Amino acid sequence: MLTVDNINLHYGAAQALRGVSIKAEMGKITCVLGRNGVGKSSLLRAVTGQHPISAGTISFEGETLNGLAPFNRARAGVGYVPQGREIFPLLTVKENLETGFAPLTRKDRYIPDEIFSLFPILQTMLGRRGGDLSGGQQQQLAIGRAMVTRPKILVLDEPTEGIQPSIIKDIGRAIRYLRDSTGMAILLVEQYLDFCRELADHVYIMDRGEIVHTGPAETLDTPEARRHLTV
Ligand SMILES: Nc1ncnc2c1ncn2[C@@H]1O[C@H](COP(=O)(O)OP(=O)(O)OP(=O)(O)O)[C@@H](O)[C@H]1O
Predict the structure, then answer these.
(1) Residues 6+ positions from 186 with CB-CB distance below 8 Å
(2) Closest ligand 1 atom, residue 51 Cα
(3) How far is the CA of 192 from the centre of ligand 1 (A)?
(4) The complex's ipTM?
(5) What dihedral angle (degrees, nearest 10) is formed by the CA atoms of 130, 170, 38, 57?
């Protein structure tokens, strides 16, 4: 399980996270919701080591991640699908997937077939440039690239952003399949309430750098939860 315990995160003098604590259990989908700019991406940057925390502890499966570089967190089993997908536009789909080899030992440097059964479109587009794919295809590629690193926890930043509804359904199905078939933990942040309600086992809501609500997905329909999510 991933445990985030009482962390703070600053950008210069501005504090983006205040005493944030969450847990993401193995075999469960944990969803963090919140409006624009409340600190969701900052929380994922803290978990993946993209930005240092100024207080608190982050651990995964009993191992402290504090101070580990992103590369070593990937080795520890943390797979990251960043906001905006960050596909390399001039590399082919195959080459983009192969960038996931970096933290792997030589014997693990192959692309698991499972990625192509989850997202068949990637197989048919292996030789195409990443930049030529649609937003939805790029999102599938970003998840595939994270899968190449054989993660034990998959961390996704707004996987539905700018994606058409039919592909959102495919991505939801893939995330559920990964939870059920591999037992990995899945931590995702979102603004899209319906996606989280359908998918999540457990939800958190953030507001202004703090966790303001936590509970099972059904609790998203309570007036108190709604109040934190409406603009
Ligand atoms: N690199 C940065 N430098 C300074 N301030 C930042 C930086 N990144 C984010 N912030 C600020 O930190 C706060 C939290 O931002 P964050 O991106 O974590 O929010 P978010 O909930 O993910 O929003 P969004 O849904 O727009 O991505 C915001 O006030 C934002 O302006």
Answers:
(1) 24, 28, 29, 30, 153, 154, 156, 175, 178, 179
(2) 1
(3) 18
(4) 0.94
(5) -90
Cα diameter, the chain: 52
What are the pLDDT digits (tens) for 4-22? Answer: 999 999 999 999 999 999 9
Binding site membership of 42 for ligand 1 (Cβ less than 6 Å): yes
Q: Is 16 in the pocket of ligand 1 (CB under 6 A)?
A: yes
Q: Write down the domain spans for the chain.
A: 2-229
Q: Are 2 and 202 in contact (CB under 8 A)?
A: no
In degrees to the nearest 10, what's the CA dihedral of 190, 36, 140, 113?
-50
- Please work out whether the CB of residue 103 comes within 6 Å of at least one atom of ligand 1: no
pTM over 0.80: yes
Q: Regarding beta strands 2-11 and 55-60, do their DSSP bridges make them parallel or antiparallel, or are they unpaired? A: antiparallel
**CATH 3.40.640.10 for the 2-229 domain, yes or no:** no
According to the 3-state scheme, what is the secondary structure of 181-229?
A: HHCCEEEEEECCHHHHHHHCCEEEEEECCEEEEEEEHHHHHCHHHHHHH
